[in-house]
# Entry
Amino acid sequence: MAEPVVGVLALQGDVREHVRALTGSGARARGVRRPEELEEVDGLVIPGGESTTMSKLADEFGLLEPIRKRIAGGMPAYGSCAGMIMLATEVLDGRPDQRGFDGIEMTVRRNAFGRQVDSFEAPVEIDGLPGPRFHAVFIRAPWVERVGDEVQVLGRVTDGPAADRIVAVRQGNLLATSFHPELTGDLRVHRYFVDLVRNAG
Ligand code: GLN
# Structure
């Protein structure tokens, strides 16, 4: 699979930025809004945005169960920020009716970094990425409070009041970050995911 087809869940959020980053990372990228479109992709990106809205739209567009099934069947998926929340098995500070894809065995807390620091940037050391620390952009971001045995912690905040908080994880073919690499022009996380899709295919 020289150029894997990677879908971006295109219901809400920063879809275009992910499409651009994936295209620059050696994938054929396309938006996924209907179950038929999901069947055509080798992997799926769940963008940043608003997880409560995304949950509602995924249900309305008939995508919630099909995505859960494909993820359970081993399809690679990567979620950034709201996408991380959508991939988690447990969400704290969510809306009671919010639903996700039950992919990564972890507990995430929404809007965890606090209201005073809605958005911030910090360098993060990420296992498996070549080169310098990743310049991570956080926007009303979640953090990971608990991970299951199968989950590999790839990155933590290195300093400041949120030091040591887990912000990048992987479980098998599933990858999630609290931050938004699609907004920075640094393609290392997307390349890592496209490699993962290629190797899974
Ligand atoms: N706070 C948002 C949520 O709960 C996530 C923010 C983001 O994706 N930038 O879904």
